[in-house]
Amino acid sequence: MTAPRGSTLRRRRLGHELRRLREEANRTHTDISKVLDCTQGRISKIEAGFLAIRPMEVKVVLDYLDVPQYEREPLIMLAKEAREQGLWTKHSNVMTSRFITYANLEAEATRICTYEAEVVPGLMQTEAYANAVNLATRPRDDIDAERYTEVRLARQERVLSGELDLWVVLNESAIRRVVGGEQVMREQLQHLLELAHQPSVTLQVLPFSAGQHPAMSGPFVITRFADRRRDPDVIYLENQTGGLYMEEPAEIERYNVTFDRLIADALDVGRSAKLIGRVIDELSGETIPY
User: What residues does the HTH cro/C1-type domain cover (predicted)?
Assistant: First the structure.
């Protein structure tokens, strides 16, 4: 078994393996919860990769399921490694627990495919734009908006280094909505054009002229990993209070098909850059090279 890189991905893979073994043994969550003397809810979260499980508990489950010895050691090792702290876990003061899970998965991903309807995605935001978005969407006094922005900018390092492939489809409204004032928006759009020149970044704009489209229900992120057989895609939908993960095969297939249709409906890379350039011109009243 090839070990995944980060603790969050290890926890997710371990959960999937434990679920597979439980189902092959025709056992239920209730059966496993009785063996571990815990709630069925905890078993569900372990199998979904949201909670870690102690190596000794893994051994107890494997004994109960009568798993062959050659399968045990890799799983027990995964359990040990999965208890390590994820890269972004220390930022719980500015990130929700569900978004920390997403950020840790993002840190272990090889490609991110995302559709955004209202805003430029966090992985492409300038500091000033990010501050404006955070102040508007996170008005609570107990959230340090500037610190939140620092974390968001730090997540961009893998994009800037080319380590993470990023494919973004932006609704035209995201490039036309003036966030933070005209100067901030001009700088943000210019930053998009600069990022679009990177080999690891693909940026397309879905124009208003495209009319109805398959993602009218809202934005989404598809997170992909190096070994898609062992580590299937994760679909992430962010909302006001946290986020929703989708990992069932039918859900993953639907969002991948939706993204493919968005790619087909959107302007190609060259025409997308020209449209962004025109919006910059409209904001500045002068011609800027792009």
Answer: 17-72
The reply to whether CATH 3.30.870 applies to domain 95-284 is yes
**The token pair that represents 104 in the structure block:** 């840790």
The Cβ of residue 85 has, within 10 Å, a number of other Cβ atoms equal to 10
The answer to whether the beta carbons of residues 290 and 192 sit under 8 Å apart is no
Strand partners, 191: none
Residue pair 221/255 in contact (Cβ under 8 Å)? The answer is no
Distance CA 145, CA 70 (A): 49
Q: Which residues contact 226 (CB under 8 A, 6 or more apart)?
A: 110
Q: Provide the 3-class DSSP secondary structure of residue 225.
A: coil
**pTM for this predicted structure:** 0.76
Digit-coded pLDDT (tens) for 25-75? 999 999 999 999 999 999 998 988 888 888 899 999 999 999 988 888 888
Domain borders along the chain are 9-82, 95-284
Exposed / middle / buried, residue 130 (Cβ in 10 Å: 0-12, 13-18, 19+): buried
Q: Which two tokens stand for residue 193?
A: 């054009």
CA distances to 89, 117, 124, 169, 219 from 272, in Å:
36, 15, 15, 10, 19
CATH hierarchy code of domain 9-82: 1.10.260.40
How far, in Å, CA of 191 to CA of 168, rounded? 14
